[in-house]
Amino acid sequence: MTGGFENATPGVLVIMGLMIGPVLYYIRTARRRRDLYIRRLAGVDAIDEAAGRSAELGRPMSFSTGITNVGPVLYACLGVLYYVARKAARYKSRLLLPQNNPEVMAIAEDVLRDAYRAEGRSALFDPRNILFLSEEQFAFAAGYIGLVQREQVAGAFLFGHFAAESLILAEAGQQVGAMQVGASVSPEQVAFFITACDYTLIGEELFAASAYLTREPIQLGSLYGQDRAKLFLFLMIVTGVGIATLNAVWPDLGLTNLDALLQVGWSLGL
After folding, report:
1. How far apart are the first and last CA of the chain?
2. Residue 267: exposed, middle, or buried by beta-carbon count in 10 A (0-12, 13-18, 19+)?
3. Higher pLDDT, 89 or 216
């Protein structure tokens, strides 16, 4: 069985290089200097506001990654969790972590412990605040509702992958008057978060929030590089549409379409 690279044309390899190159370059740049500019999002500001509000009211916060499995989305969520946990340690607030995945639970516990250690408040770390509810989707949602209502949380963070339980979780926080910040990479669930949460990060803004809060070089450089790669793709689309339009209106021009360039094979000399 042959691999995809063996059948790639020179044009495709050039495009791949233009996609990957900026990411690698900006990761290297971010490792040297972490002052790369990222536009501030309203949902990021709301994280500080919700943490401060919880401290003022003397009520706990909750942070849920929903049904997120171990992967890139969880990696982005952990960056936000680390930031929120440091806020909780600094303000001596209680932070609850309802979980539905044992592997994610173990990783989240390590992140939480590191956050408290970074603030010099290791004695305040309580593993009992990390609660395994259920691996079943709606059993987890039911457990989350009970937890939020019993503890009367003042700030709720819903970051990660969510499905049909998204509105149930967000409604639970709204009923107890919690300030809620939601972030989901699931387009179907974003509308529910916009309706029931105070602030919502949409799609890739979740990754931007994690990069902004942690300033972690790989996340920061990847975000910078991907944005520039997307700009290049956008310019290619505009150029391709322009060439196709000109060829349709004035066929005598004979301009070469971009897709034809990508399909050109290797010459015999290579």
Report:
1. 23
2. exposed
3. 89
